[in-house]
Amino acid sequence: MMWTVKAVGLGVVALSLSLELFAWLRRRLKPGRTLHEVLFFPSEMACVQHIFVPSDSCLCPLPHGVETSFSRLLCRILSAKSSLDVCIFCFSNMDLCRVLLALQIKGVTIRVLTDKDYAAIPGSQIGVLREAGICVRCDGTPVYMHHKFVVVDGRLLITGSLNWTLSAVQSNMENVLITDEPELVRPFIAEFSRLWALNDPARKHHAVDQKPAHVVSRTRD
To answer: 104, 149, 207, 217: which one has the fewest Cβ atoms less than 10 Å from its Cβ?
Structure first.
């Protein structure tokens, strides 16, 4: 009888330990929660200096310490550790340009693809990026390159209707979706790679070199 009680007691202890071990393994092996975030614009106007220099005491008249859609967007882009691929129709927002310059200083590999016509509009930041040594390619196809998406570290997608302009951020009704869902991120990685290769300047120069010369024959009078 005593042996039976001990056996039952040991069985209960073993079952309890097994359940605790199973719960621990489940917590360890359970995949992380997928990120889904939506931002709407126009964004409330607020100072973003603290995002770039947390210790700086800014004296500008804009509200400070306020989280906005724009500040959250900046922070998501600034989270890049190794690479940032930007495919954007129009790029004239100076704060977004500042984000890319800050990431370049940290050693992040940055590639920017934009529309050829809109790269030269007044206020465009494309020239600033190029002067800083950031690799930029302009889409030269006959149609507008109207994409607006960013891939951060090959794992995080930022996309939506938002152009990277001051008016879009502060005046327009726009949206941005942020997700790390692999099934959504992978097609955008593929599309960027396709467009990047398609607009390789070396490829265009090679095509020109391979074009046969046009010979015009002349006859004397």
So the answer is: 217
